Amino acid sequence: MTDSVQGELRRPRRRKRGLVSRIVGVFGELLITAGVLVLLFLGWQFTLNGVMLSNQQASDADQLIDGWQSGGDDAVPAPAAPATDGTTATPAFAYGEPPAPAGEAAPGDAEEFAVVYVPRFGSDFKKTIAEGVDPRSVLNKGGAGHYTSTQMPGEVGNFAIAAHRDGWGSPFLKINELQLGDKIYVETQAGWYTYTFRGLEYVTPYGVGVIDPVPQVPNAAPTDRILTMTSCNPLYVASERIIAYSVLTDWTPRSAGAPAEISGLVGA
């Protein structure tokens, strides 16, 4: 009997975990939980939230366009007449100089006042442009924001806008894919401003010279009509800023109809 008792199988005693080991274990579990939450957040940002913001942006843009179209058509400016000295006064644009917005009321903070179309970003790409670049009231709504210190569409100088590249609808996700000669259209109540892409630049987050009237040339007097688009770079890190420069090459009054490349998107 004694031998039988001594021969029974017994489970080995579990060694008690030390305090350090338990702390490391808890910390590891917290990291795993945090990682799962981050993945869920990213999934929400790039799927459901992105789709919702894109749909809302399309709706907001259409409402803005409908308001302009219902306001009546302006007369199409006539091309410049021949000069009296016998030479031909050729306008810079087919419909003459773009209208100066100086007499128009400046848009209010976070007010949507324009729509931007970038065919390179997708055949259905159209986003609103609102006044200001505050993330919460403007950029996080999935559109673009206008740097208030810069010029307005069509003005001589620098019309500078910003938008998210990753998350919140990612409107400028493909900004690095722009190619020389790509067209970017900005629609306002007056009509459509056609900008042609010229090149990219990468700067630090403090490189504010890109939104000067003449980018990166302080105190210079502007002569061109520039569109500057800014966003974060690289994706998911944002240690620098990617800058896309374009120059105004044409403009079309509302009464003449939208440029052919985006005619299917206007009011659609």
Structure, described:
By secondary structure, this protein is α+β, with helices and mostly antiparallel strands. It has one domain (43-262): Beta Barrel (Sortase, Chain: A), CATH 2.40.260. Helices cover 21% and strands 23% of the residues. The protein is built from three helices and eight strands. The protein has helices at 2-6, 19-46, 48-69, and strands at residues 112-117, 126-131, 144-146, 157-162, 183-187, 191-203, 225-233, 240-253. Strand 5 (183-187) and strand 6 (191-203) form a beta hairpin. Helix 2 (19-46) packs parallel to helix 3 (48-69). The longest helix has 28 residues, at 19-46. The N and C termini lie far apart (93 Å). The model is unreliable at 78-90 (pLDDT under 50).
Please give the structural blueprint.
Blueprint: H1 2-6, H2 19-46, H3 48-69, E1 112-117, E2 126-131, E3 144-146, E4 157-162, E5 183-187, E6 191-203, E7 225-233, E8 240-253
Parallel strand pairs: 2-3, 4-7
Antiparallel strand pairs: 1-2, 1-5, 3-4, 5-6, 6-8, 7-8
